Model the fold of this input.
Amino acid sequence: MTDIVHENVLLKTHNTFGIDVHARYFVAVDNITALQTILAGEKFSNIPKLILGGGSNILFTKNFGGLVIHNQICGIEKINEDADHVFLKIGAGENWHEFVLYCVENNYAGVENLSLIPGTVGATPIQNIGAYGVELKDVLQEVHAIDVEKNTMQIFSCDECELDYRDSIFKHALKNKYIITHVVLRLNKKPVFHLEYGAIKEKLNGSEISIKTISDAIIQIRQEKLPDPKKIGNAGSFFKNPMISETQFLNLQKQYPKMPYFKEKNACVKIPAAWLIEQCGFKGKRFGDVGVHANQALVLVNYGNGTGAEIKKLSEDIQESVKEKFGIELMTEVNIV
Done:
């Protein structure tokens, strides 16, 4: 039941790491009025608040002593269209992958490369999710959010969200200050395919290219590479791929000529974090009930009874090792609470 505040709620099923922690208070909301009513209540005005969607990008290291608001605001509405585009307003509580499948079914292009990314729609602009050559910022039109302090609605344009590589204003200047209720995306009626990644071409292998075949290929790739959180606790990629200067890259390349890389704008070079972690010997290693996945070194896993503190310690050991070996600082993609 929504809108009812519960006390001392177990969060194990509300985070994909499966960490066994409790929230002092917990409420699920499925509409804006209910959310604003909760925010207006004096009881919760001076305690920390945490907005939870799919729980797929969070690591709990301890019990949460405030109010967890589980955002279940759903709905997909076509609010505008022109000759080339359709504009959809999506509730923050909608499952992202289910929304991508909805777009594929309706032949709305632009998000097919983002298939099978876990989590809910509301988290996508915070993280500026991206995969296989596409990022949310390529299709984002607006973000609708409630100012936690003023309890008023505000609409942010894509530019105002300051989206960057796995980053946004909601992780910095506006962190914890707004609750996203809806996202407006601009999707294409005439698809523009992004097939730069070799793995996609291999999966398609001469098949007809469409948003459906691309989505299917990416689903297959992700299922082969990434563990299912329902079977083994994880939050997908734990670290961002680091950006380094061209000078630093050229120096490293002399030592590690086989080091993979991607040239980026502003004379930066992106290095796959998974390769760095593997070179440090962590891939497939288990430490008690936590470890690094055998197929994808970017993914830290909970084998069942691991704690958030143990996973955090493992992540810090990895960061320290990569820094020592390569002089590169790995930044976490997962939100650590």
User: Anything to note?
Assistant: The CA atoms of residues 34 and 289 lie 39 Å apart.
